[in-house]
Amino acid sequence: MGPTMLAVRFQHSVAPNALRSYLAEFLSTFFYVFAVVGSAMSSRKLMPDVSSDASSLVVVAITNAFALSSAVYVAANISGGHVNPAVTFGMAVGGHISVPTALFYWVSQMLASVMASLLLKMIVVGQHVPTYTIAEEMTGFGASLMECILTFALVYTVYAAGDTRRGTLGAIGPLAIGFIAGANVLASGPFSGGSMNPACAFGSAVTSGSFKNQAVYWVGPLIGAAVAGLVYDNVVFPSHAPEGVGV
């Protein structure tokens, strides 16, 4: 790719429509992180011993499902409703967005997450902002692998939900994305935390000042997202495949 093509892509990344996309990503990610981190704080307030109370896990899972479905829905027609650097990375690997645009998405998502976590800390005085942690019996590699698998499922669902070949079925896309996120939290919450979102993990870590095992929530999700995009577009449902195959 020559310098001219890079310049053109960068110009497209700072066009008015692109700027609106970054704002949409910022707002959706802010809403999502505020709800998810806030629900974790609420659980700790109502159930101090959250480690032994299964209902706290259900609360966080439901919040993830509801918040992500809503966040994706409100931004889908503007930015695609990524709400997650891993989703953005998966889309960039698949060639659906340019690298400069993906980087601006990342900046918007990271800023939104940090601001949402900081605002929660300011509002709920004296309440610790929880961070994603891995279980004592889990290794960093094991937690990364789990986050990789979870994010693969999430991004694969995002690809399927946004596929225009699905016709009217695409209308329920945001719900499907929220459902898989909530299910993943139920499956992994006590083990790896069920983040699937580097921005959410980073924002809470910045606010709490603890970056322990932060690499788990970047390496795993980014690899899982990249593999999901490549598998969906090139193996399971390539663009040259005839419609209706397998139906």
Automatic annotation (TrEMBL):
Membrane topology: Multi-pass membrane protein
PROSITE patterns reported in the protein's UniProt record: MIP (PS00221)
SUPFAM superfamilies: Aquaporin-like (SSF81338)
Family: Belongs to the MIP/aquaporin (TC 1.A.8) family. TIP (TC 1.A.8.10) subfamily.
UniProt superkingdom: Eukaryota
UniProt-recorded Gene Ontology molecular function terms: water channel activity
UniProt keyword annotation of Membrane present: yes
Cellular location(s): Membrane
A Pfam family reported for this protein in Swiss-Prot or TrEMBL: MIP
Keyword Secreted: no
GO CC terms in record: membrane
Keywords, sorted A to Z: Membrane, Repeat, Transmembrane, Transmembrane helix, Transport
Protein name: Tonoplast intrinsic protein
